[in-house]
Amino acid sequence: MPFVFDFDHAHPKAPMELKDLLGGKGANLAEMTSVLKLPVPPGFTLTTDACRAYMAGGWPAGLTDEVAKARTRLERAMGKTIGDPADPLLVSVRSGAKFSMPGMMDTVLNLGLNDRSVVGLARQTNDERFAYDSYRRFVSMYGRIVLDIPGAEFDEMFDAAKELAGTTSDANVPTELLKYLVSSYQGIVERHTNKPFPQDPAEQLRGAIEAVFASWNGARAVAYRDREHIAHDLGTAVNVQAMVFGNRDEKSGTGVGFTRDPTTGAKGAYGDFLVNAQGEDVVAGIRNTEPLSALERHFPKVHAELVAIFERLERHYRDMCDTEFTIEQGKLWMLQTRVGKRSGRAALRMAVDMTKEPAIALGHAEAVSRITEDHLDSVLHPQFAGSGHSVLAKGLAASPGAAVGRVYFTADDAAAAAERGEPVILVRSETSPEDVHGMLAAEGILTARGGLVSHAAVVARGWGKPAVVGAEVLRIASHSFAVGSVTVHEGDWLSLDGGAGTVVVGSLPLVAAQPTAEFTTLLRWADEIRAGHLGVRANADTGSDAANARRLGAEGIGLCRTEHMFLGEDRLPIVRRMILADTPEEETAALEELRVAQRSDFVEILAAMDGLPVTVRLLDPPLHEFLPSIHDLAIKEATTGLDAGERRLYDAARLWQEANPMLGTRGVRLGVLKPGLYAMQVRALMEAAHDRVRAGGHPVIEIMIPLTVSGPELALARSWVEAAVAAAGASSKKPAKQAAGARAGRLEVSIGTMVETPRAALRAAELAESAEFFSFGTNDLTQMTFGFSRDDVEGRMMSAYLELGLLPRNPFEVVDADGVGELIRIAVERGRAARPGLKIGVCGEHGGDPTSIGTFYDAGLDYVSCSPFRVPVARLAAAQAVLAAGHYTGPANKAEAQKKAPAAKRAGGVTKGLNGKAKTDKARATPGANGSRAGAPRTKRTSAAR
Ligand code: ADP
Ligand code: MG
Ligand code: MG
Questions:
Q1: What is the pLDDT of residue 51?
Q2: Which residues surround ligand 3, an ion (CB under 5 A)?
Q3: Distance, CA 620 to ligand 3 centroid (Å)?
Q4: How far apart are CA 471 and CA 747, in angstroms?
Q5: Spatial distance between the Cα atoms of 30 and 96, rounded to a whole number of angstroms
Q6: pTM of this prediction?
Q7: CA of 393 to the centre of ligand 2 (A)
Q8: How far out from the chain centre does Cα 891 lie?
Q9: How far is CA 500 from the centre of its chain?
Q10: Contacts of 595 (CB under 8 A, 6+ apart)
């Protein structure tokens, strides 16, 4: 396989499909050249194979020769020779990896100029000024990118020259000064490298190619790949292309164009351009650009041609494209295109619009595949209202969302300010586990150092807290920080956008996210795709959470934690009375009080989720969580002394103290020690259910027993639950019927267990004997599978493990598909073998993570459950998992959908479909709902999610 391909090489496949080999830029340049026949300056691509070979063993044998031959072909095509002193051909050397990595890999323009060819260029173009301006640009670019010389040294010299010439405009620097600049730039190079600036074009070319290869492993490129989870071994391609010149004269220019607006998604060409300018001038922000409408005024013919090209590109790629173009003396050249990046809002709008445009005819499934978690997130997080704020500093966009607060510089100060009720932005050079309380108290976090997997970034993302990290321009003192001449003091207002990485002085107004019509439409399509395959529920403990979850599309509650109901100020004393009870009578009395309190909580939740399943988990945490801190009481005892009540609490707290509470008396083990507790909870729940039935509701109840490890243990716990259900049923069934008559729905109760220990997963068959459903508690299952105590491990060692590559992802964020996933697959298989039709879900935090959702679907789960605000993301990811597995058999596109069953499609509402029992049963019956579909589709989905 050759290392080098010309842009017009006849590949056996469409070049745009060859991004692995040619890189994104090279693949699309070849597509534009050989398929679309657009005006593209000729050139050739060194493949990613060449880069990988280079990384493995240095400059590959034979590459020099291949490059030389490709160069000769290019020179022949152009009728010019690189380095020719009379009429030189100039080239650009451009990096381009499979995934676009904006601004991280560098490009060298005007290569081939030297002290002799610059004279030829001047004579040939009859424009000495142009020639020396190009040479000046080349020497500085080559110096900065290839020879690693700080760009500021060249910039300062250029600024000085402009000052000398009494101008602020690049275009007004006179030729003589440009000549002088060239030699001064060469002086800088010589000072840094102890060698003269390379004059031999072959040496220049080799240097530039090597620099592109090397930039693949540059710090920023590595950080970007870490963040985007792009493999580090892909390598980059290198494109060598004949130069065209937007800086020739006033009939020339350069620009970037989008086939539609990448911010709003509005139809119609959108872009910026500059007259008489080269390449990076447009994005560098040095000169003020003009909109494409101005291009229409200056060069109407070129504008029309460009718009026509945009339309072809959209039809061809069936998506919004971004482009780079250059006009040389009135002739248009296309320098780049790719499917363009877009804001979340634009992504949603374009996906929906394109299903309606016959030229593109996007199918619903395709539209859903094009939306990412980030797109949804960005329209759900609060954002800066308006635009055009003056940005003080930019850092890495570590955790999305906008935050506004007053600046504090230590975790203690931040926590204290938050205590006073101030919104806080915590500003640190970097954070460590000692800062966690301050981070928790802050609205947003800003650090000057650290990358996207730094402590601050990892922790902030884990909490969904906006964060900007690695804002290196910040100079942080003890009670202030400075950026250039601006100083921000402790207590000053600061705004940051963790999705854009921007920091703005002052308090910007924020707007709550307003889901657009397209948002609703796309999620409805997602629901249609996953209907009958993978359900989405929410974890909710209160009526208002449940109502919110339902509004966001949850199809039930997968986890209702009853302990939260015990921690309220009014409840805690009762719980403590129960724990402290000396006699069974005292214990019963306390349980009675709790029952009354719980009953009303349950009524609210069941009402909010009427008609949908609600999984109630019986009490799970260790009892000592309900007792006061031993530490505080010990201090009090030693200082002011304890009163009688405090003395009892202290004794009880010490009694229940455990060395390792996470592995101690929790979950069903607590139930075994205090069986009255679970009976009480079930009674409260059943009473609430009967209340609901009386009110005409239809409660669907699933009672879940936590932390079981064996069949006998679960059978025992189940017997209490059944007894309590029966008792409650007997006492309230009749009145229910009388009150609500025939309208009253049936009461459906099922009993199941959480699977959250490795033993439970392995012994799933015996658990299934006593369980109608399983729900994987993947937080605990992950802790116990790895032997990682989450609270200790996440703050302290996780970022080191991720940085060293010891773990591919934080397993508390993305479920470990290999280890924990294996246990899940085993449990699904054994559980369903023992009880066909066993309903299985997941209720850990992983239930809201797209990659994990794919793992769960592939393992054969029926539903995922996640926090309410993650429900939209889970609906999308569930649909994408179904698509990736090839299980969606619906119509491929909208036109087809209308042909097939127009009426049925409109009538069959999603909610109905997903709630209906028939659908769920169908999912269960899906053959190979376990191991057989595991694994394989994972790669597909990952790239779709990106
Ligand atoms: P990036 O990946 O950062 O966009 P590019 O390889 O696209 O880098 O190059 C940056 C800029 O250089 C482009 O916007 C384009 O305007 C200019 N450029 C690259 N190659 C050429 C060329 N052959 N002729 C003229 N300008 C070029
Ligand atoms: Mg580019
Ligand atoms: Mg648990």
A1: 96
A2: 756, 777, 780
A3: 7
A4: 57
A5: 13
A6: 0.78
A7: 24
A8: 29
A9: 13
A10: 680, 681, 683, 684, 687
Quickly tell me which residue has 């240095």 as its tokens: 58
Residues having CB within 6 Å of any atom of ligand 1: 41, 92, 94, 107, 109, 241-244, 254, 279-280, 324, 326, 335-336
Q: How far is CA 55 from CA 97, 212, 213, 342, in A?
A: 14, 12, 8, 33
Token code pair at residue 465:
């807290």
Ligand 1: which residue has its CA nearest to atom 14?
279
- pLDDT band, very low/low/confident/very high, at 890 (cuts 50, 70, 90): confident
Stretch 681-691: mean pLDDT: 93
CA distance 454 to 431: 8
Tokens of 274: 């500059």
Is 444:498 a contact under the CB 8 Å cutoff?
A: yes
d(CA 729, CA 699) in angstroms, rounded, equals 14
Judge whether residue 942 has pLDDT over 80: no
Question: Which uninterrupted H or E stretch holds 876?
Answer: helix 871-884
Determine the Cα–Cα distance for residues 336 and 566; give it in Å rounded to an integer: 61
Q: Which ligand is nearest to the CA of 622?
A: 3
Neighbour tally for 889: CB within 10 Å = 8
Q: Which residue has the tokens 């999305």?
A: 400
Q: Probe ligand 1: pick from 336, 337, 338, max atoms within 8 Å of CB?
A: 336
Closest-lying ligand 1 atom to the alpha carbon of residue 96 = 2
Q: Are the beta carbons of 486 and 479 closer than 8 angstroms?
A: no
Decide if 722 contacts 685 (C-beta within 8 A): no
Name the strand (E) or helix (H) holding 864: strand 863-866
Instruction: Give the closest residue (by CA) to ligand 1 atom 12.
Output: 279
Is it the case that residue 151 has pLDDT exceeding 50? yes
- Closest residue by Cα to atom 24, ligand 1, is 243
SS3 sequence, 366-406?
HHHHCCCHHHHHHHHCCEECCCCCCCCEECEEEECCEEEEE
Is residue 800 scored above 50 in pLDDT?
A: yes
Ligand 1 atom 17 nearest Cα:
279
Write the DSSP symbol of residue 171. G
Atom of ligand 1 nearest to the CA of 254: 16
Is the Cβ–Cβ distance between 605 and 618 less than 8 Å? Answer: no
Instruction: Please state, in angstroms and as integers, the Cα–Cα distance from residue 486 to each residue in 475, 478, 480, 507, following that order.
Output: 10, 16, 10, 16
Over 80: is that where the pLDDT of 919 sits?
no
CA 524 from centroid of its chain's CA atoms: 21
Protein residues with C-beta less than 5 angstroms from the ion ligand 2: 324, 336
> ∠ CA(530), CA(531), CA(537), 5° rounding?
80
pLDDT tens across 94-127, in order?
A: 999 998 775 456 789 999 999 999 999 999 999 9
What number does the ligand 1 atom closest to the CA of 246 have?
25
**454: number of CA atoms within 13 Å, CB side?**
27
Residue 598 CA to ligand 3 centre (angstroms): 21
User: 74-88, 127-141, 786-800 — which is least confidently predicted?
Assistant: 786-800
pLDDT band at 284 (very low <50, low <70, confident <90, very high): low
The answer to whether residue 734 scores a pLDDT higher than 70 is no
Confidence bin at 891 (pLDDT 50/70/90): low
Ligand 3 centre to CA of 660 (Å) is: 15
Cα 931 to Cα 858: distance, rounded to the nearest angstrom: 8
Residue nearest atom 6 in ligand 1 by C-alpha distance = 94
CA–CA distance, 129 with 131 (Å, rounded to integer): 5
Q: What is d(CA 20, CA 662) in angstroms, rounded to the nearest whole number?
A: 46
C-beta of residue 625 within 8 angstroms of C-beta of residue 653: no
CA distance 34 to 175: 40
Alpha helix locations (H) across 552-629?
572-580, 584-608
Q: What's the token pair of residue 917?
A: 């029992």
> Which residues participate in catalysis according to the annotation?
455, 843
* Per-residue buried b or exposed e for 675-687, using 16+ beta carbons within 10 Å of the residue's own CB: ebbbbbbbbbbbb
Q: In the beta sheet, which residues pair with residue 237?
A: 96
